[in-house]
Amino acid sequence: MFYKPAMPKSIPAILYTALFFIFIKPLQVHSQNSNHCSSHISIVRLVSELERGNNIKIFYNPSWLSSDSVCINTLYLPLNEALSAISENSKLDILRLDSYYIIIPRESQPQIFEKEETSIAIIGNPNEFGRYSKASITGKILDGKTSEPLIGAIVYVENLEIGSSTDVNGNYSLELPVGEHNLRLSYMGYEVNFKKIKLVSPGELNLDLFEESHQLEGVTVFAQRADQNVTQTQMSVVKLDSKALQKLPTTLGEKDIIKSVTLLPGVQTVGEFGTGFNVRGGSADQNLILIEGIPLFNTSHLFGLTSIVNPDLVKGVTLIKAGIPAKFGERAASVMDIRLGSDANKKISVKGGIGLINSRLSLDIPFVNARGYAILGGRSSYSNWLLHSIPDEDLMNSSANFFDVSGQVFIPLGNRYSVSAFGYLSNDGFSYSHDQDFRYSSVLSSVKINAIHNQTTTSNLLFGVSSYSYLLSDLSVKNPLNSYNLESKVDYYTTRWNLSSFLSTRYIIEAGVSGNLYIVNPGEVNPAGETSTVSPKQTQHDKAAELAAFVSNTINITNNFSADIGVRFAQYFKLGPGTQYIYSENEPLAPAEITDSISYAGNKIMASYSGFEPRVNLRYQLSQTSSLKVSYNRIFQFISQVSNTSIATPADVWYLSNKYIKPLESNQLAIGIFKNFSNNEIESSVEVYFKNQRNIVETKNNAQILMNPFLETDLLNVLGKSYGVELYVKRNAKVLSGWLSYTYSRAIQKTNSPFQEEQINSNQYFAANTDKPHSLVVNTNIQLNRRWRVGTTFTYSTGRPITLPELNFTHNNQLIIYYSDRNKYRLPDYHRFDVSLSFDGTLRLTKKWKSQWTLSVVNVYGRKNIYSTFYQKTQPSAANNYRQYSLYKLYIIGRPLPTLTYTFIF
Amino acid sequence: MKSWFKIIIAILFVAIGNGCKEIFDPEIDANISVLVVEGVITNQPGPYYVKLSWAGNYGVNETPELISSATVNVNDNNNINFQFLEIQPGIYESPPELEGVVGGTYTLIVTLPDGEIYSSFPQTILPSTDIQSLNADSTVQKTYTETKYGDLILNETPGVEVTIKTNTYPENNPLVRFNTNLIALYTWVKPGPDPMLPDQLFYCWKFRNNVEGINNINKPTSGNQVESIDNTVIAFIPNDRSFFGLDNNNQLFHVIVKVSLYSLNEDSYQFYSDVSKQLSSDGSLFSPVASQLFTNIYCVTNPEKKAAGLFEASSVVQKDYVLWKPPLSYYLMIEETENFINIPPPNCLLEEKPWFWIN
Question: Does the model's pTM come out above 0.95?
Fold first, then answer.
């Protein structure tokens, strides 16, 4: 229920289309008026009669209507025709807004549009004036250009000093005394907007924000961010909107969204340029990384050189590390929700960048008055030259290349519905020393239908597919007889339906159901080349279904105490066709212990698991600038990535839970204190977490992962514990901004088996691969002037755990290496310093071609951080202490690496 | 624009040559003592031997330190204790009473001079798998070698491939390992010291042991599932007589193929499988992470103390075959012959055939 007598520029674009200008000019009315009218009636009287006769409300200023009249026959016309007659016979326009009609002077419209500060929005039904002392306002805050909801935007009532922030759907709610109020709307990267309202009774008000106009006026970031980190109930969350993304550190000349989050507390890299990231001790496969709601099974190009998400199309990223909302499941450690969107404002725009490794180009096409849009972007590498230039024989004979294409179409269907379609395709090729050729690709697509059912209830329905496949060709140039191709694939299909409803200003409920289908081809080997004598082999395909339902409640219990409480129920079925082996009881799982096998037909249930996943977020506002938050979540994960390589690679095998390998169960408790200083210019937080995990999938010693039909016999379910404290201080200011984060954390695991074959380190706790106790990041962003910016990033972390040879011995006259306990040692500490310098080519808003040069230097002091270690047979010599095997370290960037990138938009 | 171009070119030149690999020599806590056990007991008549030593520091090329004055015992499933006798430093020999039998379970117990007691898991000798026959085929083994310029050269080595056939059913493959030793029986004609005197004819023999390595286990087809024993290659014998270190003055008559088929229990198979993986690791990007090898030895008195190696209990079938090519025949012949045991070290006898000579 809302009424808008005027339409300032900042009114959401979507509401423009909700207005119906009734300029109907029925000829018969006009003719009646001129030729057959026996009597006239004043417009004031006519309006009054129309209100009474049609049970409607028409808003107007009586002074505008005093002198005009229409034929009395107009009274007997249908409402629309009667209103048209008014318009015809006066200098008045009539607007319709839902069930309300507004009469405004025709010539005054432009003035009203421009006077946004003086316009006043009446909220609620004027007939109910005086009935309420307090009333609630609900609504959405939208991007004025794209009509996409803004997550985390702030609505602040200046005279009352209270405010609210929008949720993931852009919804907000406020309860205020009736009367006039000044609303202040803010969102990072957007222009601050002010809105005067007159609150009469409960109603709805949707609001727009527009992106700030480059930097002509000098944006004050802290004024926009406000105290969201303190006031929102969700903890352990990082939100990056499009503006924040632009200020991310540059790596190899490009804003790398996924890598950038590894600079935040509690998030660590797998390696120098590893695949994926680790959140609070979880392995990379425990992160649910969604693009437009569809999960990625591989996140990087070229083994981690850059992430597979094209930054030019990204509108926002949200990373949640704890208290994960009930609508998310599937992965145990974190959720990274990447949303694409349009930047264009009613005009087609082209954006691109030319870098050292790759170039990119994207197209942004708005339509339907910028309510709908289509975006399309692509990247392609030309990195082979770099490899061929490296003075290493193997690397000179190697090649690496990739491309990706992604796009999205958003189509509004009237005022209540919209549909969006998303597609993504990426392909990587990597050839190492002519010996191994590795290709992998990801395909994602989705269709999403959004619906606004009424003023408080919205829903969306999503259909999506994610597919990841790789082809490893071991060309075995030293013996072509053994050349083979290994293919593997994982397919994921999903359907989700979510409903959210603002039942009151203090209570929001969300609910939904989802169904996922996994089909995994663990491996298929075929001979490569005519000379190969390799026999074709195929392992059994795995299939599973994961069903879930959730309900989540956001409750503002008091002004200081709020809670997000939800529960998710997950049901998992391992499905046929397939063969399930039966092993001897009270013996370690081994192929030799197989006593029987059961064959299952297609879609027959081979194993099932289910469980409730409680989710709780509590916030207590200690003061206006500080709050205490507590969260707890439990999540089951039914698919894991198993690897026994020294680094995570895209060739790791995805494995579904079955009768023997149980689903991972993760329980996390987190507590945090959030405090802002200097009028929110400085944000700070201290978070402590403890995570208890059961059934983490680990590999046995000397496990064989690829092409193993009895892979469960080489895997173990282990216990895991993670705990840590994260300190975070962030400064948002015009000239100097940045953050400092320090994390102390541990991630340990242990087996619990009576059998030696199923023990790691004799059932003692050992460091997980993700265990890096100390992590420090210092990031600064200095705005030297309106054109020049300098960014620096220093990162430090303890070296990751590693297993090393300690001794050797002879057995049957063969020299054999005795390795240490698993992960007993650590690689040297990791640290790196990066610098970037950006120059904006033009600052004029009217300039069509805008450009930016970015010079960045990665690893300024040339630290040789270890990417991986491996062993190679060597010719014993004095140089290697006469070892038959030598341990090597491989580093990617061993000296300062400068890159220059040119970015443009027009 | 020219200046920008120069800058870009300069940057590109600096950018290259970043990634590299180097030998990594981390600091290792080598201050640990790991007992290494190398012992075997079979269903064949003894004596059996157990060798005790300390593992040496990684990368240090030194002779293993053998452990003397230890007490070595084996208990069988009848709770009979057999004490071994140290016959050389670190080498312990079983008493004559100990005879391994199929189905018997044996536990090794070692008491070191410092009082620490180590034990093996009980090891059972599983039923043996009989060797039905060997098969010999002329073949050409193809291998590729890489020149320093990266070019590949195909090497074709003509020779004889010896495969095995057993009496097991394919669906009941036991875990086995093969040990193949070759004995070349050849003659050497030595010109007489005086042209007037006849040449001297020597009957000689030479050994070539472990031709396929000690880890010639029946390979996992995938995972630990083993492939059929049948047709496993147990030896490849090149035609080139230099394989045995012979020259043109030598005439190769016969090759005796001594094959031992060990039927392993799971512990022994796990150990040999792990060793095989370690030794065949090529260190490529996709090679498995280095891991500890399986061992069936543990310290009873102090679980913190480590051990390595294997106390193996296996049943063994040993058979000897003679390989030759009949004159004017296209086919190779390989026939079972009597077991030759206690063949003396390589030697030559003048005008006298050794007792194991085959005509």
Answer: no
In the beta sheet, which residues pair with residue A860? none
State residue A690's pLDDT score: 97
Supply the pLDDT for residue B146. Answer: 61
pLDDT class of A243 with cuts at 50, 70, 90: low
Distance CA B144, CA A390 (A): 27
Q: Region B213-241: what's the mean pLDDT? A: 67
Which of A589, A576, A715 has its CA nearest to residue A644? A715
pLDDT at A328: 95
Mutual angle of helices A43-54 and A79-88, in 10-degree steps:
170
Which token pair is A494? Answer: 């999903």
Amino acid identity, position A173: S
CA A137 and chain centroid, separation: 28
Q: Residue A6: which pLDDT band, with cuts at 50, 70 and 90?
A: very low
Which phi and psi angles does B245 have, rounded to 5°? 75, 30
Residues of chain A with C-beta less than 8 angstroms from the C-beta of B289: 644-646, 803
Check if the interface score ipTM surpasses 0.85: no
Are A69 and A92 contacting, i.e. CB atoms less than 8 angstroms apart?
Answer: no
Q: Give the separation between CA B33 and CA B28, rounded to whole angstroms.
A: 13
B residues 153-192 closer than 8 Å to A (CB): 175
- Who wins on pLDDT, B254 or B329? B254
Q: Concatenated DSSP letters for A317-355? A: EEEE-SS--TT--S-SSEEEEEEE----SSS-EEEEEE-
Strand residue runs (E) in A368-456:
372-381, 399-413, 417-432, 436-452
How far apart, in whole angstroms, are the C-alpha atoms of residue A57 and residue A52? 9
Place of tokens 């990684």: B58
Say if residue A883 is exposed, middle or buried (CB neighbours under 10 Å; 0-12, 13-18, 19+): buried
pLDDT at res. A780: 92
Name every residue whose Cβ is closer than 8 Å to that of residue A730 and which is 6 or more positions away in sequence: A682, A683, A684, A737, A738, A739, A740
CB atoms within 10 A of CB B319: 19
Please tell me the distance from the alpha carbon of residue B148 to that of residue A711, in angstroms, as a whole number. Answer: 39
Handedness of CA A527, A533, A534, A535 (dihedral sign): positive
Of the candidates B8, B18, B55, the beta carbon closest to that of A818 is on: B55
Could you tell me if residue A304 is left (phi over 0), alpha (psi between -120 and 50 degrees) or otherwise beta? left
Hey, what are B64's tokens?
């293993």
Q: Do B19 and A893 touch (CB under 8 A)?
A: yes
Taking an 8 Å cut-off on Cβ atoms, the answer to whether B55 and A393 are in contact is: no
Give the pLDDT score at A654: 92
Residue type present at position A515: G
- DSSP assignment of B117-157 equals EEEEPPEEPPPP--EEEEEEEEEEEEEEEE-TTS-EEEEEE
pLDDT at B175 over 90: no
CA A802/CA A869 separation, integer angstroms: 9
Enumerate residues 277 to 336 of chain B having a beta carbon within 8 A of any beta carbon in chain A: 277-279, 281-294, 296, 298, 303, 308-310
**Comparison of pLDDT for B110 and A247, the residue scoring more:** B110
Sequence letter at residue A339 = R
Q: What is the pLDDT of residues A818-843, one digit of tens each?
A: 888 899 999 999 999 999 888 887 65
CA angle A585, A588, A593 (to 5 degrees): 65
pLDDT, one tens digit per residue, over A135-160 is 888 888 887 766 778 877 888 887 77
* Pick from A227-236, A550-559, B14-23, B224-233: least confident: B14-23
Q: Is the peptide bond before B47 cis (omega within 30 degrees of 0)?
A: yes
Q: How far apart are CA A893 and CA A9, in angstroms?
A: 50
